[in-house]
Structure formats: structure tokens, C-alpha cells
Amino acid sequence: MTHTRTWLQLLRVGRAAGRGSAGGGIRFVSLLCAAFSLGLAAAVLVAGFAVYDGRELRGSARAPQYVSGPDSEDAAVLLRDAGDQADDGQRSIVYVEPLDAAVVPPPGVGAWPAPGEVLLSPALRAELSSEGALDRYGPVAGTIGPHGLEVPGEKLAYIRPPTGFMDRAGMTAAKGFGAAERSTYGDRSSVPPLSAFVGLAAPMVLFPALILVVIAARSGAASRDRRMALLRALGAGARARALVNIGEAALPVALGAASVCAVIACAMPADLTVPVVDFTLPSADLRRWAPALVAAVVVASVVVLAIVLLLHRTGRDSGPRPATKSRFTARPLVWLCLVFLLVATRGADLIGNSATGPMWRLVYTVGVVGTLATLPALVSALVLAAGRALVGWANSRGRPGALVAGRWTVSHPGVTARLVAAVVIAIGLITQIQLNASLLSDPMVAARAAHERVGDSVLTVTSSARQDQNRAFAEALPSGTHALAMGPTDEGGLLLTGDCPALSAVGAACGPGKGDAADARIGELAAWFGGGQAVTLREGDPATAMEKEAEQLVLVGAAPGDLPVAEVKRTAYRHLPAPQIMPIGGEWLGGAAELVKPAAWTLLLGFAGIALLAFAAAVNNLGEFLRFGRSLAPLNVLVAKPGVFYVSAGWTILLPLTVAGALGVVVSAWLSAPMTAKGAVLTDSFLAALLILAGTLAVISWAWGARTAHHLADRWRPAAD
Known about the structure:
- The chain is α+β, with helices and mostly antiparallel strands.
- 60% of the residues lie in helices and 11% in strands.
- The strands form 3 sheets. The chain has a 7-stranded mixed β-sheet. It has a 7-stranded mixed β-sheet with strand order 13-14-12-11-15-10-16, sandwiched between helices. Strands 8-9 form a two-stranded antiparallel sheet.
- Strand 11 and strand 12 form a beta hairpin.
């Protein structure tokens, strides 16, 4: 009992000391926000695991149990996976044809639709309704239930084709639904793997949250270090000193953890839509993983308390006198920074792997995070060297401001590292956001350029249709839209076959001949499908040509401008089995569209991390400016000129932040080399803007710190502290 009372008393001592210390309010708020940020970051990671686990469960439940073929005695349903390209990526279209009316439909489907009818997911139904094309794939018979979708926002359609509409040889057979392997249709083809999400969330959110925890743990360190020295002098052991520190930090950490639990509780009852990325978070997955979410918050709180203890001087010392010099040593971290920089830029060579795949992404992420984490130590080492030189120069020239600044810099390298940490890491994060958002391959860039030139004025249609289906489709096209059959020539060029109206639409006369080179659509077709050679146009029936040498249909308009894509697609799904309707370079445009969502996640998580770093910088700078001001206050008695404060702040604040900004931009540009080699874009103007922004922040911080020091000096009175 006495032992327990002693523990409680020490915890109360720590709590009281925290309330009464200088800057205690700043520390309380910073620790609360740090615990909230780290707990929320941990919860975000666990929520990612929960969502991916839910995807696996629901994807496996609807996965077809494939058999050898349509003629197998176990075959009960035929399937064919297709897609419909949209501006935001592919929509998944699945043709399902039950061979036995008694076979159980896939999860989320109460009953099989009638031949020709369609079942839509809620997200796809809402999107088609907003486009005015709800019946694009056929009459809508109902909605797919939530347990039949991997996530609530999945865009999925089940189409039951009319009898004889699909060639059964092109369909796969299954005896039912529910397999160990996740289904191959739906979001699976476009959603990045779990490792990609973890590789994005860890550096963008978890890493900045840890930086905030470290800065909050050392906020107002001077008074706490003196307190620990006093306790040590009075005979308090390491455990007693640790309990005092825990007592000071326990309440704000507990409040931060409770706030995270409240946020998690708000996400449990119903699905929530994440802003910016427009992703609906499945509440069922969060409820299933609720214990893990709470455990993540508890672990994050323990980590915060552990960092608070590790970053305080509670260990054994040679005597009761407080240390007069910082224990921070930059040299090992400087070497680590160079090692991590090598890993990030040459990681693919080090692991013997090409610059693709999850392993390269993991190595690159580790290298970038390690470089940014240790780069503040490199800045601190450079400023420390400058500080030593400054002391000698100031002594010989009699410059008090420079002398004070030099001695401060030499004595507090850890303060310098914390001062610049948020700046260099924020520059690195912003650069990574830009790189990920601009990651397009050369064909994607070319496809976008081609689409800007001709838009949707020419469309390609690919399907396994019969001659009668192709003819019916061509005859049912909207007014002013014409079809040509496209295929290769023996010489490697391109042959287009169409009737007179179709040939006239591209500026060619009826009969055999060459395409008009002035027509941009013909030029784009030649570039993308004909190897840049001349295009031959021939009068004929495109449906007949599709049975011979042609491979796909090309749609053009009699008038300039985009074709009525929505009506064309509606017509195609009525007459053609599993059609693919695309503009020029459509495959690459679809790939670029699939990158939009990962880029949006990068933007959301990246700016969340930058917000954490901005708050960390504000907390650190406010605490250090107050400490800096109290340290320089006695100079007001000895030096009448206020310029000493601005000179000292220039060397201790302006110089480190300026060096940090310049070095951060240089290192970020260096780290971008592997990404730019894969097609990402990082312009000189972007880097220049970062440099200007960092310089502006340095000037503002310098003016703020110097003014704070001068203001505290005017109010300073000697005290027995």
C-alpha cells in the first residue's frame, strides 16, 4: 500500500509541476495534439487493414467456383467480365447467364434478373442517373445489396444477356459462387494493394505524427531538465523521475487518446464518405475491427509516453549537477542520412530489382523517410560548425550579438534540429505529393495529348459480335454518326472500310483511295494503329469487313465535334456483346484515370501530414522563442541596443531555417530522380516556389523570435531562479 501511495504521490507531483512550469500550457496542448495525431494515424492504418480485409471477405464470397467449361456437367452459370470506361476509371460489367434456374445467385442479388435486364450497384446507379443514362446497359431490374460489393462505392453491374446474344465459347463456366480466391472483377483490378496504402499512409501521416510527438516531448525542455537534476540531487532514482514525467504527460495523452476514440465511435454506426477522395468507409468493417482500432489508440498512447520518457534526461549521471551541454549528437545521424539517401536513389540497384513493383516501392519509401528523418541532423551539424566559427570571429571583433548566438548554437544542437525538422520534412512531403500526382507514363501523356486534339470526335468499338450484330449496331447509330471497319493492310498500314456517308465524313471520296491527311482524326488513327503510315480508305460494308480482315469498328461524325458518347454506348450495349467503346488512346487514358484516385489519397494524406508538421513547427517555435527570449533577457541590462536580439535571432533562427530550406529543396530534388525516371514531373518552378516559401518562413520566424526576445527582455526582472 505504501509503495502504491508513493507512486501516486510522484504522479501528482509531476502533474502539479507541469501546471506550474513556464510554458506548461503550451506543453499540455502540444502533448494532447501529439497523442491525438499519433492515435488517429495508427487508427487510419488499422482502418486500412479493416477495409482490405472486408474486400477480401466479400470478394471471396462472390468469387465464381470455376469449372472446366460450359459443357461440364457441373456448369450452372456462365460469366464474362467486361468494362465500361468512364472519366474516373473503369466500371465493372459482368455478364451472367444461369444455366439452371435453381442455382443460387451471387451475394447481394436476391433473384436472377430476366434476360436483357440489369442489376446495378448503388454507386453506379447514382452515377448513371446523373448522366441521364440509367438504362445504358438495359432495363434496370434492381440494386446489388451491400454484402455483394467489396466497398459501398464500388461501380458494378450484372447483366443477364438475352438468349443467344453471347457466344458461350467466350464465357467461363462456374458451378456457383463462394471461393477461397477473391473475385477477379469489380474493384480488384484497379485498387492498389494493401502494401501501397501502408506505404502511402506511413510516410504521409504516421511519420509526421511521430515528428510532432518528438517535438512535443521536448517542448519546454529546459525547466523539466532542471527539475530532473533537482530530483536526482535529492536522491530520486530513475523510476521516481520517470513517474514524475508520466504524471506530467498522462492527462494530455489520455485526453488525446479519448478524442481519437470519440472519432472512431462516430464512424461506427453508419458508412462515412471520406472527403477529397470520395471514398465511402464501410462501417461494418470498422465494427468488426473495433478491438484492433482501440488497441491501436492504446499502443499509440503508450508510444507517446515512452517517447516522453526517452527524450528526458532521467538516466544516471556522473553527479547531481545538471548537464551544461546538450546530449544531442548529430554525427551518427549525418552518416545515416547519407546511407538513406543512397538507399532511396539507388535502391533498385542495391536489391537487384528493376524500378517497379512493391519491393522497389518499399525500399524507396524507407529511403525517403529515413533521409527526411535524419536530414535535420545534417542541418544541425552544418549550423554547429558555423556556430563554432562564429564564436571565434565574434570574440575577435567584439560583436556581442554574434557571440551569444554562436555560443547558443554550439550549446543547443538539438534545438536547431527540432527547429528545422518540420521545414525539411514538409518540403520532402510536398515534393512526394507532386511526384505521385504527376506519375504518368509516356503513352499516357501521348494519349492525353491526342484526346486534347480530337476529343471524342472518333471512337473505337471492339467486341466479339457476329456480322448481323455489327450491322444492326451500325444501322442503329445516332444520326450523323457513321461506322468504318478498321484493320491492317499487307504493307503494315491501315485500311478503313465504310459506306459513302462514312467516307465523306472523313473527307474522302467514295471508292478506293487515300485518306485526307488534313483530317486530324485520320492522322491520329494512323499514328496509334497504323504505325504512322498512310491510311487506305475503301468503300464497302463495315459489317462484312469485320468478318474478314477488320479487327474493330471506328465511329466518326459527319459534323466536327464530339460524338454523342452516351447514346453510342447505349446502342452498343443493346446490339453488341461486351463492347469496349474508347476514344483514341483509350487504354492509356483509362490507366491515367485510375491514377487519379491514388493521387487524391496522396493529396489528402499528404496535406494532413503537412498540417501536422505546420502545427509541430508552431509549437516548437513558440516554445523555443520563449526560451530564447528568457535566455537573452538579461542582456537588456548590459546592451542598450535592441539590435543584439535581431542579430542573435538571425544566427540562431534565420540561418538554420534558410539552410534547412535550401538543403531540403536540393535533397528533395535528388530524391525525386527515381520517380522522374518512371514518368513523374518535378519542375524547376515548383522547386523555386518551395525555396521562396521556405525563405519567407525563415524571415517571419526570425522577426517573430527577435521581437519575442526583445519584448521579454523589456519586462525582465532579476529573480531567484
